[in-house]
Design a protein that fits this description.
Blueprint lengths: L19 H6 L5 E4 L5 E3 L6 E5 L6 H14 L3 E6 L10 H9 L7 E4 L4 H7 L4 E5 H7 L9 H13 L3 E5 L1 E3 L2 E3 L14 E4 L10 H15 L1
Parallel strand pairs: 3-4, 3-6, 4-5, 6-7, 7-10
Antiparallel strand pairs: 1-2, 1-5, 8-9
Helix pairs in contact: 4-6
Amino acid sequence: LPPNISLGETEVIERRHSDPLGQFSLGEIDAVTVGSDGSITAGVDHVGGVLSGSFDPLHVGHEGLARVAAGMLDTEVVFELAVANVDKKSLEERVIRERLAQFRGRRAVVVTREPRFDGKAALLPGCTFVIGWDTAARLFALRYYGDDEDRMLAAMSEVRDQGCAFLVAGRVGDGEFRSLDGLEIPAEFSNMLTSIPESVFRQDLSSTDLRLASGENRERNM
């Protein structure tokens, strides 16, 4: 405390952050939008395509998918950096800022802490989420809803009620290319998902592959 300030027994100092990203990290706001010029504003104001991911790192596959999706949807596609993920640890503010630096001069980024798409849909009503086959498979996997089918159906109904949909790119899994056609989707949600044809977009590169390659290169150079 400054030397001339004393607190009473019931008084506390409230920490506030003037930077929107700092406010987001403290849980004071639900989302921020980072422009391609690096400007940061509180909240989200976007209706169009949204390509969600952790972007560790951002690579040409992400950018190629965004371009294809923008053409198919005939609308702008922004990226969403999800700082919370159903399968991963939440990102710290330092890591968030490092990930965001990759987008400078490229595209706008929405930053949220919503791990599931019902939460994302509440922040981004009317948007089409651009996802890979593996993410599409997780949409209906009961383990992400406490093994409760009613919770899964309610969550996906919320996405539908928010006017959101999904554009799904195929991915390589277990050595074969897998697309939306191979997924079992409850009939009431089938019209929410549209497949990107393999002839239009196929990119076998993944962030995991890049991280592994980067680690191998570092070991060779040591």
